[in-house]
TrEMBL record:
The species this protein was found in: Citricoccus nitrophenolicus
Highest taxon of the lineage: Bacteria
Transmembrane stretches, start-end: 37-59, 65-95
Keyword Membrane among record annotations: yes
Keywords associated with the record: Membrane, Transmembrane, Transmembrane helix
Protein name, as recorded: Sulfate permease
Length: 113
């Protein structure tokens, strides 16, 4: 039973990482070229929070109960985009510092020869 649950969870994670648009965008941001787009991607959290607010209000006013699932989905996506901005900023600074130190070492080695 544990093996079946494990296999289903692995396949579900693979499907979500591969085909869901927000996960595809977050994977693109985590690349070296995409790190600079992390902070502007934080702006995408605003429409998600607005959509969550609208769905919550509709559900509260007597709408169908499945709108609560959309509220959770929108809030989750907003949190993902809000956090990727700060994380990508830290990663970008770390990569830039590493590139500067490598270029300095290359200059030092070239000057020594």
């Amino acid at each position: 039973m544990f093996r079946l649950i494990w296999a289903v969870s692995v396949r579900t994670r693979y499907f979500l990482r591969r085909y869901m648009p927000t996960n595809m965008l977050l994977d693109a941001i985590r690349t070296r070229r995409g790190l600079r787009w992390g902070v502007p991607a934080m702006v995408l959290a605003i429409p998600y929070l607005y959509a969550a607010s609208i769905c919550a209000q509709l559900a509260e006013d007597g709408g169908p109960g499945w709108l609560h699932l959309l509220v959770m989905l929108f809030v989750w996506n907003a949190l993902k985009f809000a956090f990727i901005g700060s994380i990508s900023l830290v990663l970008l600074i770390r990569v830039c510092l590493r590139e500067v130190s490598c270029s300095r070492r290359a200059v030092d080695v070239g000057a020594a020869q």
